[in-house]
Structure formats: structure tokens, C-alpha cells
From TrEMBL:
Organism annotation: Enterovibrio gelatinilyticus
Keywords on record: Coiled coil, Membrane, Transmembrane, Transmembrane helix
Annotated protein name in UniProt: Alginate biosynthesis protein Alg44
Keyword Ribosomal protein: no
Signal peptide: none
Amino acid sequence: MSGGIMGVAAISTGSIHTFQSRSGARKFPRIEFAAQIEIDGILYPTKEWSVGGFSIGDDKYPGRKGDKHHGNLCFDLPVGRFSTPVQFEVMRASEHGYALGCQFYSLNSGHQKTLQSIVDTYLTGETISLESVTSYGVKAQLHEEEVKRMQQNWWRFALVALVSLTLIVTAALMIQSRILSIASEHAAVSQPVLTQRSYNNGVLRLGDYKPGQLVKKGELLFTVFTDEGTDLLAKDKQLLNGINSQINYLQTLLRQSKESVARYNSRLFNELQLVTEKKQLLEDELVTRERILALYTNGVKRGTVDEVSRELERVETFEIKRQLLTMDNQLEDIEHKLDQILIGVPPREAQGDLNSPFEVQSKLDILITKKDQVLEEIERLKTRGLAYAPCDCYIVTINASDGQVVQTGTSVFELSPASQQNRTARSILALMPLEGAELIKIGMPVEYRLASRDDKLIGIVDHVQYYSASNSDIYNEEGESLSGLPKTLPRLQQYSLIKILPSEFDRDSIVNEPVTVVATVGWKDIFKHWFNL
């Protein structure tokens, strides 16, 4: 065997047993005390065993590494046989498919102590008696029965624990609801207010409107119109007539200029085609003249043609070349003019006494821009004394009366959007007592109930600030005023103001609708506040 070998003699009923240690190789020391493993009613002798497992000889029991089995580990003692149930896994096997080394698993503490007692008794050299071994077995059995009994009664303990926990939680919730709940002193639905002001000075004419009434987008709210506005409107209309006359003239001039350029462009194309054909004919004539000149040259050499005739032919050839050069210049000039027309700057001779289309179009664009400005001014003057509803709104307040003389910028109506797509700006403003308000944090959920509904809803705290009734105007980040809080609070009263984002299920509330808000603070927040964490 590998490792050190140490002999220990143990006298048991007159026999000598030898213990062979494998120190450092296994968790439990194995001994060669005779033992057998019983599997499916068949006994297989072990070579050695320990509290952790056993080994058997090759070609005894078929098995592969990882196979799991169960059986009984048996010992033949002087006064009888003792066995204990075990479950084991094959950890080492031979090449022929037989188990060599096995390891116990799921061995309960009682059976483990039984095997350990046999090992300890064997190592100390004492006699292994059936009574000592069975006593451990009886204890293990009693332990198993006690565990089973506790497992059978666990639901009773769980029920008692659940009832106790429920009572504790209920008591804590009652304490929390009574002591840790902060209720609002004043709260209402709020939304940014749109102020409708007078656009000029004059006498106000109101329709039959009342606060809280719903008006449709584009509905006429009031009228403020003066003689001054009538004079300005007449002046702008006269200016508009003059601009329209100039525009009509320039449009006619632009059409004539474009027609003149179009005719000139057509004439250039015809001329280009004519010169191109004439050039082609001259090029053909030049080829013929050059052939005749070559014949004259050969005739001079033979003496059949005089030199004067040859030179006259040469002069004709040069004349044709000069004409070709002149035509090339003509073609280049025509193509240049066509390019000018293409980019919108035609030559002067294409326009005659008219301005170019580019010049006329520029003047026309300036007049059209000026006309748009005058039309915008006329439209503004037409509606200067008329105020229309900018959206589907609720009338929050009416700040002027019918027949009142108003100035430019005077606030007449305060409106709050009511259409579904604009309700995202709606919120709830709540005045909370200063005591305990430091425990209210941004992002914490709060419970609220609308005056028009009985069910409770959950909102989220979006903003927390100090509030004094002596300065009761509230604005959002865009500088728009927020409505909803009462205007008759004692001026020396101080509160904590919280802004609450409403629940997504809150779809029916209107601006200024009263609300009851309750903020419940958790124990965690209390402890953090106490210890300044």
C-alpha cells in the first residue's frame, strides 16, 4: 500500500487484527476489520472500509463511476451479525466495469456514529461487542423518530408563529396609522393658469360667462375695439392695394421677359444648328481641296501643271480653313449664350428693353414678403380687440366686468386647460403642518381622496417647499402661476407645501377641486431622522 504503514494490535475474542493507515490520503481512516456489503440480498466482502466508504475486490460487483446504489454494511461479531443501511456512490471502477471503491452519501448522524464507534473500538484494541454497537443504533433510531415527530408537528409551530407575526404587524400598522400619518390642512387640484389679457385700450364687452364654466377652443371670450384700430386697419388695407398693383405689374413684366428669353433661346438653337451644318460642309470641301492640291503638286513635279495653278489652289485651301476658324468662334459664342440662359442670366440682347427675369423675380419676391407682413398686420388689427379661448379650458376667475374701460395688458380671464392631451400638467397642491413635514421626501407615495370620489388614490410627492400665507402666489418652473390654494388663509400661518403628481387613474378631477391628502411616514424614515443618518 502507498503511504505509511502502522500496525496496531487489538485482542478481540482471541484474534489479532491489523490496522493499515493511509494518513493524508482520506478524510476517514480505513480499517481491514472484516465487513461485508449486502446488495440486493448478495453479500460481497470488503477489502477495507471507513466511516466515509469502502473498497471491494475486482470482478466482484459490476458498476461504473458515478453509479449510486443502496444496501447494508454487515459485521460478523462474536455474538451475532450487525448491519446498518447505507447509500453509496461508485467513485473508482476497473476497466472491465467492476466497482473498486465506493463512497457513502446521505448517511445520517446516527448511522455515522455507529460506524465511528466500531472504528474507535477497533483502533483502541477493545473488544467490539454487539451491545455497544446496537446502543448507537438504538440512539440513531430514536433520533430519527424524534426528527420525524418534529417534522409532523412543524405546521403547528408555523401556525403559532404566523398568528404571532400577524398580531405584531397589525399592532405596528395601527400605531403607524395613528401616530405616523400626516394629514393635509388644505389641498386642491391645481394646474397652470393661462391669463387672457386685453390687446389694446377700450371698453370691455364680455359674454355671459361665469367662473368654472367650460369654454371651447376658438370661442370668443370678450371684445375691446377702438377708433384707433379702425384707422390703422384702413391705412394697411390701402397699402395692401398698392402692393397688389405692383405685384400684378411685375408678374406681367416677368412673363414678357421670360417669353423674350425663350424666343431668343430658340433662335440661338436654330443658328447653332445652321452653323454646325455649314461647318460640316466646309470640312468636307477642305478634304476635297487638299486632295486636289496634292494632285497639283504631283503635276508640277511631272511638268503637267504650272506652279501658278498649284498656288491658287493652296490659297483656296487656306480660305476654307479661315472660314472654319470663324465658325468655331461663332459656335463657342452661341454655346456661351445658351449657358447664360440656362443659369438664369440671359445676355442683354435677349431681353431688349425689358429687365432680366432674375431682376424682375427679385423685385417680385420683395413685394410678396412685404404683402405677407401687411396681411399679418391687418389680421392682427382685425383680432386686436377680439380675444378667443386658446384651448378647451375651465374659467378659473374673471378679473374685469362688462363695460369696464381696460388698458393694454389688463388681465380679463384666467383659464385652465381641460382637454385630455393637456392634463399632464395637472397636479395636487397640499398644505401640510410644519410638525413632521421634514419627514416628507420627494418621491415618496402619499394617499389622497378627491371631493367628488369616495375611493382613495396614490400620488407621488414631486416638490416640497416652505409656504407662507402672506405670499400665496405659486409658480411652476416655466413661470406659470398655479391655482387651487385658498386665498383667505391667516397671513401669519405657515405650512409645508407639497406638490403631488396624481395617479394615472385620476381622470375626472377639475381645477380647484378640494382634496384630502394623507402622508404616511415609515419607521425607517423615523429612525433616520432621529439618528440624523
